[in-house]
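Look at a sample.

——
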Amino acid sequence: MESWENARELQLIKQWGVPYQTYEVEGQKYLLYKEENNFTLNGNYFHFYCDTTFTIENGIITYWKYSGNNCKAIYKENN
């Protein structure tokens, strides 16, 4: 995911497709992508999801974050 920092917004849309939701606050644009999978197994219901939000400034990705129980990105803390 860190490779997306400083990438162009258009690059992201070409690779990930149209975002689930976009909004703007004080000159910054936010793109929200959602991934959800639901299924039932032996009578048990499972819901897996990942929400990824990108912050865009002047057409450039400046920040990203994700939350959920099925996110595939690996977090690396800067030391």
